[in-house]
Amino acid sequence: MSEVKITALENGPNLVEGPVRLIGADGHEIEHNEPFALCRCGGSSKKPFCDGTHRKIGFQASGVNPAATK
């Protein structure tokens, strides 16, 4: 089985590499190509995928991992 790698790009999307099943909020699988980028800024018109809006709106990642602070 191939390894899955998810990389949070600085002030950009999460880059997903490797074989994964992407499931939407409605429970249905979302078709995608590999690799793909998931929106982190909330502004994409192609959610859950990144469309580059983070650059237009000046998205700045907080740099804090909420899970690490609990």
Overview of this structure, please?
The chain has one helix at residues 53-57, and strands spanning 5-8, 14-17, 36-38. With 70 residues, it is mostly beta strands. It has a single domain, classed as Ribosomal Protein L9, domain 1. Strands 1-2-3 form a 3-stranded antiparallel β-sheet, with no helix packed on it. A hairpin with a 5-residue loop joins strand 1 (5-8) and strand 2. The longest helix has 5 residues, at 53-57. It is globular. It starts with a strand and ends in a 13-residue tail after the last helix. The mean pLDDT is 90.
Rg is: 13 Å
Number of helices: 1
CATH level 4 superfamily: CDGSH iron-sulfur domain, mitoNEET-type
Global shape: globular
Indicate the CATH topology. Ribosomal Protein L9, domain 1
From the structure provided, what is the oligomeric state, counting identical versus distinct chains? single chain
- How much of the residues is beta strand, in percent? 15-25%
Query: In sequence order, what are the helices and strands, one letter per element?
Result: EEEH
Q: What gap, in angstroms, lies between the N and C termini? A: 32 Å
CATH class category: Alpha Beta
Portion in helices: under 10%
Structural class: mainly beta
Mean pLDDT: 90
CATH architecture: 3-Layer(aba) Sandwich
Number of discrete domains: 1
Task: Indicate the low-confidence ranges by residue numbers.
Answer: none
Q: Tell me the total number of β-strands.
A: 3
Order of adjacent strands in the largest pleated sheet: 1-2-3
Largest sheet: 3 strands, antiparallel
